[in-house]
Amino acid sequence: MKLFTLPNFITLGNLICGCLGIIMVLNCEFTNASIMMLIALILDFLDGFVARLLKISSEIGKQLDSLADVVTFGVLPSLIIYKLLENSALEPSYLKYTAFIMAAASALRLAKFNIDTRQSDSFIGLPTPANGMVVATFPFLINDYGKLGEIVNNPWILIGYVFVFSFLLNAEIPLFALKFKKFGWKENQMKYIFLLSCVLLILAFQLAAVPLIILIYVLLSLAISKKTRK
Predict the structure, then answer these.
(1) What contacts 3, CB < 8 A, 6 or more positions away?
(2) 173, pLDDT greater than 90
(3) pTM to 2 decimal places
(4) Is residue 41 one of the residues assigned to a domain?
(5) Domain extent at residue 127
(6) What is the number of structural domains in the chain?
(7) Which of 31, 64, 150, 169 has the fewest Cβ atoms within 10 Å of its own Cβ atom?
(8) Are 14 and 102 in contact, with CB atoms under 8 Å apart?
């Protein structure tokens, strides 16, 4: 059993970023925690990319990836929302604990992913890194985006987000995966168009584009699925 492979080391980097992010949230360093999550997102993409490039595949790598993602894209985003709710004027205050519904939904989604044979080349339900990516933008939006930041920081908006995205994580919604077995245009036309759209949206709207990108991702996946079924 090969434990110490390059993809596994990259995955462990993802996990360490999640742990550091948790410490930063507890110290109310929200933007630094978000930066850790964004670094982890890059590592989460790289571990699979490197594994396919080197043709290294193992069951332990698959399990390790999910365990790391539970921490980085399950617990850490939930803790960010929990602390934002704790710092708000939310009444009754115990509603702040609803943030951890998202951590539970993320763990359930990742456990299901590991045994669901339908998800080898695509996803059923929103991937946890996509949810983490949205939450990672919240501290920046709150600090730098005026009215939009006020909307994001509204405790009822945050609670609504938790419930909606907890549902999306485990919904029976087919979503395409940004996995490249080959890099030709014909095989990956939709993926390249989506990635180009992401770049253009980020250039135009900076971090405010991220929630919009996830919305487009879900809608585009539904359109592809509907077209495939016809």
Answers:
(1) 60
(2) no
(3) 0.89
(4) yes
(5) 6-178
(6) 1
(7) 150
(8) no
Report if residue 89 sits inside a domain. yes
Asked, for residue 147, whether it belongs to a domain, the answer is yes
Bridge partners of residue 175, in order along the sequence: 123
| Number of C-beta neighbours around residue 130 at 10 A | 21
Is there a domain that residue 116 lies in? yes
Measure the CA angle with vertex 43, ends 10 and 8; round to 5°.
20
The phi and psi torsions of 37 (rounded to 5 degrees) equal -70, -35
pLDDT bin (cut points 50, 70, 90) of residue 191 is confident
User: How many residues comprise the chain?
Assistant: 230
The larger pLDDT score, comparing residue 186 to residue 100, is at 100
What pairing do the DSSP bridges indicate for beta strands 122-124 and 174-176? Answer: antiparallel
CA separation, residue 213 to residues 12, 80, 109, 205, 225 (Å): 27, 21, 21, 11, 18
Q: Residue 130 maps to which CATH number?
A: 1.20.120.1760
Distance CA 69, CA 126 (A): 13
> pLDDT by residue (tens digit) across 126-163?
999 999 999 999 999 999 988 999 999 999 999 999 99
pLDDT band at 105 (very low <50, low <70, confident <90, very high): very high
